């Protein structure tokens, strides 16, 4: 029997982000307000931080950057086509308690989250969408198509994968268009054995309300390790920022809000305490930081940096209990009537750039299936050693990472 890999790609696109001054009360209110996606928000689950720790441990002392939104949405959409133990592993891996929350409520919450995040908003752009490219020679179940259209707002396209060059161009052109040309040629080496490509894109763009001045940027040391330093372009600005000293985890948290409801958190562990902070990361910790940030005059030093990450999630997710989908035990009967289908590969790629004007961030997750075969004096905070970074939109964690080497 000829093998027909089923290729499923999830894409998180490029964006530009900027500082904004928020009133403390408004910021705290937003962090406490429930949203339609609250129960599925990656920030409220252990999955995202377990995934971060797994990614970080696979590459010690290296940069880490990924999109929890992209990965979790990829798995949630995939679960629509799974059955039996395969489905249970994915949903429980994402933090869903099937005894307390019915599966349909889980997907409906994602649906509401997508609808809310796709609404026009003042100050920044955040658009989300999905697309399903299917080969007419393969019978994809109507129930699966209907579910991804209704719950994940996916567009559907018929593609002749028998002409892989043309199919690859069609899909890559779509991706490039949705990401404003920031991610091109995402799919490579497509061949006639592929039968489906699923794309989920997120485009985020905003500007700093108070940009860093180029005139204040200076070359300074960044201590990659206590013994090793590299020269970086260090931005600086004295202004009111959000600040919290987490004495339990031995770290300083600086909140740099974007226009709209998004916020960047820069977390600076005390010297030698990075692992302690990483071990303490969870949804409760993130919510505590968001709720306890208060305005403070800071003299902030932050390096310009550009980092990227590429991860083979089929090697990582089994460590988090999501394994059947990558084996001959996979039950993907909800996608097609073919019985011998499994996920052979799941790739996640992400990048972020921070400069005086703002932040640019992009990510992509590819899943490949195939048949079995307080007002005080200014406080000086210098991010001149490895630190963590998060980008949130209300309670939803869009990006997370570690800057170990700018």
Automatic annotation (TrEMBL):
Keywords: Signal
Pfam families named among the record's database cross-references: Serpin
GO biological process: seminal clot liquefaction; spermatogenesis
Record's signal peptide: 1-18
Domain Serpin: 49-406
MF terms (GO), sorted A to Z: acrosin binding; phosphatidylcholine binding; protease binding; retinoic acid binding; serine-type endopeptidase inhibitor activity
GO terms for cellular component: acrosomal membrane; external side of plasma membrane; extracellular exosome; platelet alpha granule; platelet dense tubular network; protein C inhibitor-coagulation factor V complex; protein C inhibitor-coagulation factor Xa complex; protein C inhibitor-coagulation factor XI complex
SMART domains assigned to the protein according to its UniProt record, in alphabetical order: SERPIN (SM00093)
InterPro entries: Serpin_CS (IPR023795), Serpin_dom (IPR023796), Serpin_fam (IPR000215), Serpin_sf (IPR036186), Serpin_sf_1 (IPR042178), Serpin_sf_2 (IPR042185)
Family assignment from sequence similarity: Belongs to the serpin family.
Protein name per its UniProtKB record: Serine (or cysteine) peptidase inhibitor, clade A, member 5
Taxonomic lineage of the native organism: Eukaryota, Metazoa, Chordata, Craniata, Vertebrata
Gene label: Serpina5
